[in-house]
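TICKET: design request
STATUS: open
ATTACHED STRUCTURE:
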């Protein structure tokens, strides 16, 4: 009877009984074994790389036949940032993570909402009241100063800190005393009354960590704060039960809270969901691993990847390789399949945090972009430049057919080139198509006199051929008069008989046209630039070599 009196003291009369919510949110009508996952971010700023990573794991774990939903955990209003929710939702959308249910940019989808915790206050209070009714929760009027004093005493006595046992001052408070303190205007929180003992152990099968044994929770932790808003611990249990979540996938910083959560589920009479605790993505600093940081690492915000121009497909592909050591082998065997076809297994995830590897991301992205059509690359570069590099956009948007022709070179071939890792690389990649800055570092086997002679002779034989083989024959023509072998195989057999090979001569021409030793197919480049422009560049190159000769002399 005293428990019910306590409920009357703490809660308003018209709260819906907790049992009614069980009827309102009945178990989902899904086939046996269907997975229901969720991502539950707090709107405290931008979308974090870790949140994107967990969302990806949630999505592929649920699979095509499961349910993956978004719940917004906005109970900490002090940390909430204006626009935080839309930042997160837009970020997920940008990277192709599409929840099937929950809080979305277009409102709520699904029958298990509200999917925003600030709109669920009465639900939490109803379940907190049910615990008070059973003597499993109580009000605590301790001030911050009193809690600090308790902590100091525990530290002095070299005891475990926390609100438990003899330190749980209000554990046995009476309804009358509670009413008296409330009448005095004293604020209070509601604490869970733990029946556990640290001497007991709980055994849990984590889907990533495997079998875990941990001390049972004996702390009387807070479930409702003084404003009636729940703590993460309590809201998590109530929400994931009522929304019928089957798999809770989250960062392993929550692993230490697992005894609290399992105890709450069981005490509330809920089925305990399956847990999977993911190791965080790490950075290497001074030889030591550390968790990727919002403060230190630009990569912590997924907006970084968008600003740099990494396609969403590249970032997801990279994160998949981080998530599963088996993914890369699968990708080699299935180069054109969607990553969603990969049979992902939580149990195969790394137990320790994977290092963020920018070089690997670049390699992955080059491979992804190499498979894009020229039209997709063109549109993507234009969209990126319009937002992040307006000067570049002004230059390339004047003739989009020309830009598309640039990106068409060496693209739809068995072994496409992999020059571009991100759209911000496109400015450097396309530079010589728009601005010719003549620079001549001669190939090692070609002296200035031969270079001038070869380039001058090439102007005489060059015509805009229809095939690469015909074009290459023109280059072969000018080789032998200058002592260069026109046949690559012959040169390999008898290199001592020649100054160099046709490869050296073609490199000289490439340098004259592009100022680069490495470029896409030179035949295609010259056709695109047109004969007049190519000859202008060759003339400038000859002039530079003449200057080089004077310096040497």
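STATUS: resolved
RESOLUTION: sequence designed for all positions
ATTACHED SEQUENCE:
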């Amino acid at each position: 009877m005293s428990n019910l009196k306590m409920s009357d003291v703490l809660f308003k009369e018209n709260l819906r009984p907790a049992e009614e919510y069980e009827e309102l949110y009945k178990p989902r009508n899904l086939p046996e074994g269907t997975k229901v996952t969720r991502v539950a971010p707090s709107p405290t700023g931008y979308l974090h790389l870790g949140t994107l990573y967990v969302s990806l794991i949630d999505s592929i774990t649920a699979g095509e036949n499961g349910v993956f939903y978004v719940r917004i955990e906005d109970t900490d209003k002090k940390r909430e940032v204006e626009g935080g929710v839309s930042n997160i939702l837009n970020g997920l959308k940008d990277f192709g993570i599409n929840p099937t249910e929950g809080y979305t940019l277009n409102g709520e989808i699904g029958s298990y909402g509200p999917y925003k915790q600030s709109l669920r206050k009465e639900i939490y209070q109803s379940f907190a009241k049910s615990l008070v009714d059973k003597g499993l929760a109580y009000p605590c009027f301790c001030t911050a100063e009193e809690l600090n004093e308790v902590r100091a005493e525990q530290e002095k006595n070299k005891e475990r800190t926390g609100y438990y046992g003899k330190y749980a001052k209000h554990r046995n408070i009476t309804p009358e005393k509670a009413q008296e303190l409330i009448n005095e205007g004293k604020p209070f929180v509601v604490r869970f009354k733990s029946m556990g003992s640290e001497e007991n152990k709980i055994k849990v099968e984590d889907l990533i960590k495997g079998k875990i044994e941990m001390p049972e929770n004996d702390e009387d932790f807070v479930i409702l704060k003084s404003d009636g808003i729940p703590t993460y611990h309590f809201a998590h249990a109530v929400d994931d039960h009522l929304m019928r979540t089957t798999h809770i996938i989250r960062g392993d910083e929550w692993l230490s809270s697992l005894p609290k959560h399992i105890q709450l589920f069981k005490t509330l009479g809920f089925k305990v969901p399956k847990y999977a605790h993911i190791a965080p993505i790490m950075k290497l600093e001074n030889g030591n691993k550390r968790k990727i940081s919002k403060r230190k690492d630009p990569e912590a915000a997924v907006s970084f990847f968008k600003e740099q121009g990494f396609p969403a497909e590249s970032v997801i592909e990279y994160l998949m390789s981080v998530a599963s050591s088996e993914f890369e082998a699968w990708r080699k065997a299935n180069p054109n399949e969607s990553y969603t076809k990969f049979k992902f297994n939580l149990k195969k995830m790394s137990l320790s945090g994977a290092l963020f590897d920018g070089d690997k991301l670049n390699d992955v992205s080059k491979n992804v972009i190499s498979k894009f059509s020229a039209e997709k690359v063109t549109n993507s570069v234009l969209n990126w430049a319009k937002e992040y590099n307006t000067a570049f956009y002004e230059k390339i948007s004047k003739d989009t057919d020309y830009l598309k022709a640039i990106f068409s070179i060496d693209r739809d071939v068995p072994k496409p080139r992999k020059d571009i890792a991100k759209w911000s690389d496109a400015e450097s990649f396309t530079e010589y198509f728009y601005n010719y800055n003549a620079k001549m570092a001669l190939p090692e086997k070609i002296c200035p006199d031969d270079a001038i002679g070869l380039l001058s002779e090439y102007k005489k034989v060059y015509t805009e051929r229809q095939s690469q083989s015909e074009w290459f024959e023109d280059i072969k023509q000018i080789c032998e008069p200058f002592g260069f072998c026109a046949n690559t195989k012959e040169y390999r057999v008898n290199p001592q008989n020649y100054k160099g090979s046709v490869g050296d001569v073609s490199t000289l021409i490439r340098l004259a046209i592009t100022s680069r030793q490495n470029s896409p197919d030179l035949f295609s480049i010259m056709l695109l630039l047109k004969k007049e422009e190519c000859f202008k560049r060759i003339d400038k190159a000859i002039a530079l070599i003449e200057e080089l000769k004077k310096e040497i002399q």
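CLOSING REMARK: The two ends are 108 Å apart (CA to CA). The mean pLDDT is 94.
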